[in-house]
């Protein structure tokens, strides 16, 4: 049973309607498609997020789509990708409680080094500019802040799936922004992995950046994935799809890379959320 829980549509920064995403998923043989638009975010922090007045329409449309596709071999789930930012946004916020979501993805995109939140995955240029402006040129402060937020998210709980665990590396191609072999960096990432060992949350092997920005490998890095496997942390494969074709043949090479990353870390199965409960499915069928 092939499933993808991380899909965006035109309620946020996706290119197409949820219906077009469903058609692509069905054609590609997915049995479960979770729609997870970027949840509304206070203070207008990130323009890719859904605007608050559209939330009601989103919930109604995805629920209606789910009913429509029920008999057509595709289970559609209603989700949201909710930004985590301490004291600004959490899944326990009144805004999200009682929406009746099938699941939520918790993601750290934003860190605040003192002059306001910025998205670590926006661009290499904005990353560098913030390091200069807010951190005196010391990029280590960005990943430290990132993993502090991530650990706070894990400890707070309330999310079902953790999004792209080491997103802070997105534009660090060839180590041009910071050194990922720095023992302190590895310790910070492994600290998050250790916390996850005792947490009730599923981790993504997210191949979205392979589809959209030319990344060579999925998140998270192999050393993190091995640590997660050793701690018994469950994983799902996530396309983080922003366009229908990313669920189809154009995405299949990246999905196979995600399966291979799982196998290399010692996984033999991935988690499956269907009909309201989590089970496991063999990697080859995922
Ligand atoms: Zn994200
Ligand atoms: Zn996403």
Write a structural description.
The protein is 33% helix and 19% strand. The chain is α/β, with parallel strands linked by helices and 286 residues long. The chain has one domain (2-285): Metal-dependent hydrolases (TIM Barrel, Alpha-Beta Barrel), CATH 3.20.20. Strands 1-2-3-4-7-8-9 form a seven-stranded parallel sheet. Strands 5-6 form a two-stranded antiparallel sheet. Helix 4 runs parallel beside helix 5 and helix 5 (183-196) runs parallel beside helix 7. The longest helix has 17 residues, at 140-156. The termini are close together. The model has no long low-confidence stretch (mean pLDDT 94). The structure holds zinc ion (ZN) (2 copies). Residues 81, 107, 109, 163-164 line the site of one zinc ion. One zinc ion is lined by residues 6, 8, 81, 240.
Q: Could you name the key traits of this structure?
A:
binds zinc ion, globular, TIM Barrel, 33% helix, 8 helices, 286 residues, alpha/beta
Annotation, overall tally of beta strands: 11
- Report the mean per-residue pLDDT as an integer: 94
* Overall 3D form: globular
**What compounds are bound to the protein?**
zinc ion
